[in-house]
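Is it possible to get an amino acid sequence alongside its tokenized fold?
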Amino acid sequence: MYSVEQYARAHIVTDADIPEDETIPVVLRYDPEADPRSVRVGLPGTQTHDGMHEWTFSRSLLEQGLRAPAGTGEVRVWPCGRVQAVVEFHSAQGVSVVQFESKALLRFLRRTYMATAPVGR
């Protein structure tokens, strides 16, 4: 088993004055040694030492949300058209709605399953 870290670009969906074509850097992480059922998404912010706010949630939630709306708590995921997916993060500070290319999230999920696949098959 090994850790997976993948960088992706995403769009923040907001009413704020941000150009529509501007993307933000996002880090997708999976560490089967720490928690084989969870993935982490790092968004730019000030909450951690590296300037990223990290959200941890179920890997199955991410997978389900790429096919149909999923989640009811702090994290919700749903498909948006044929090539995009939305991940919505709720906190006491507000809501962050982040739009990804679905293929980036699918590639990340594939890599997480490869990281936990038995060796020697």
Q: What stands out?
A: The radius of gyration is 14 Å. Residues 2 and 115 are 5 Å apart (CA to CA). The mean pLDDT is 86. The chain has one domain: 4-115.
